[in-house]
# Entry
Amino acid sequence: MSSIYYGRLTVSIFGQSHAPAIGVTMDGLPAGEAVDLDELQAFLARRAPGSGVWSTTRKEGDVPEILSGLSEGYTCGSPLTAIIRNTNTRSGDYANLRDIPRPGHADYTAQKKYGGFQDAAGGGHFSGRLTAPLCIAGGICKQILARQGIQVGAHIAAIGGIPDRPYDPVALQPEDLLSPGQSRFPVNDPQAGQAMQEAIAQARADLDSLGGVIECGVTGLPAGLGDPMLDGMENRIARLIFAIPAVKGLEFGAGFAVAHLRGSENNDPFYMEGDQVRTRTNHAGGILGGITSGMPLVFRAAVKPTPSIGTPQESVSLSRGEGTTLVIKGRHDPCIVPRAVPCVEAAAAIAIYDALLEQKERSR
# Structure
């Protein structure tokens, strides 16, 4: 099924935006792993709606209820299932979307795929609301990885063309990854963050929205993790990153910029640092041939502008077979990028922990 990530760790996401609850089941978690629910709640709070002027006014506590899989704070070997109850829905705002699809949304394609039986309220199963259970799974994986010396973090690399200070792909440190997530607006440069927030406020005033870029980094990874071809680390991460509905692009290391370099410029020279093999540069983003090199893993995800905007838009009436103008109602983020930062971290953490579980199984 399309809502299940299969691996040594299986992650199944269920629910709809305005259903009674959304949730996740994780199968394959080893027994005996501690899960700090307060730390998990703090991670989910970074994604929760209603946290700033850049966010939707929909208020949801996003408090996870663990139904199974934990015993006295530790994983017990059985599938872990958690739900988040939806408490603040206004389904009437979406009543006309089966007939008049929103530009930039999945309303039209869902109608063609499911023949009108899809849940259109709040975007149904296509909604960004489903990234909350993704963050439950990823937040748990982040805790387990951190105990193994592996840190996953991200920041807003750009919004509306306004750049933040990028990560140093060679000298990236765990504190560099943790620092942005400790503020309400996760950037490295507060001045850049202020400029971004002003741009978002202007877009909201214009009944419009902004997109941006999120940069994610991982430190502490051993060399040799992953596989060539279809199970490379890029592939594993990409599959989960594209589960975040607003993501439209992904690049690792120098990404598309490598197309403008010569081989002598793009290749990362090797050298010895004590008994460790390192590289002088990190255009590869910590991955060679689908396998981690031991350097920091760095990638960026492009996030589209929120398609639900107040500006009148051209659409069609499917029942009448004619053009019409659509004015979207409801509560929507003028920029989804800040709330998507923990979602990117969660997706990366799931993929990396799954690869580690596979590697440990092979080495037995």
In short: The mean pLDDT is 92. The chain has one domain: 4-362. The longest helix spans residues 337-362. Helices lie at 37-47, 107-114, 131-147, 174-178, 190-205, 233-241, 263-266, 337-362.
